[in-house]
Specification:
75% of the residues lie in helices and 0% in strands. It is mostly helical.
């Protein structure tokens, strides 16, 4: 279990430029559509189950964050700054020369392997989702 918990998941995405660029492109498109008041992707989880997914509200929260509405952003979805930071890091690493991007990905992999941060953030996101579902937030 420890091996799984401390697996460098985010670093694996950073190491794959194509994967990173696809995620960054899709994220930019979704956020751009939202910022211009255009409809973006509908949450398939919410459509299927009638409940918001753990990420529901992130697009709106990131848009609010980018407009400097930090408190409102945090109220909409507390993980918006974390996702935005990861998104920016993915974009930078994907666009940097391969030598630098490999060094950054290796650093992130070592950090994840020692701390299990990605797994802890996932557990925190799921816990936050449950709290939101129970209408405590």
């Amino acid at each position: 279990m420890k091996k799984f918990w401390y697996r460098p998941t985010f670093a694996a995405i950073l190491e794959n430029r194509t994967e990173s660029l696809i995620l960054v492109g899709a994220g930019l498109l979704q956020i751009g559509l939202h910022l211009f008041g255009l409809p973006g992707w509908v949450c398939p989880f919410k459509q299927l189950f009638g409940l918001p997914c753990p990420g529901c509200g992130l697009t709106a929260a990131v848009g609010q964050f980018l407009h400097g509405q930090f408190g409102k952003s945090f109220q909409t979805h507390a993980f918006a700054p974390i996702f935005l930071g990861a998104f920016v890091l993915m974009a930078l690493v994907a666009l940097l020369p391969k030598r630098y991007s490999a060094e950054i990905a290796a650093f992130i992999a070592r950090f994840e392997s020692k701390t299990g941060l990605t797994a802890w953030l996932l557990v925190a996101l799921l816990g936050y989702w449950v709290v939101r579902l129970l209408d405590f937030v």
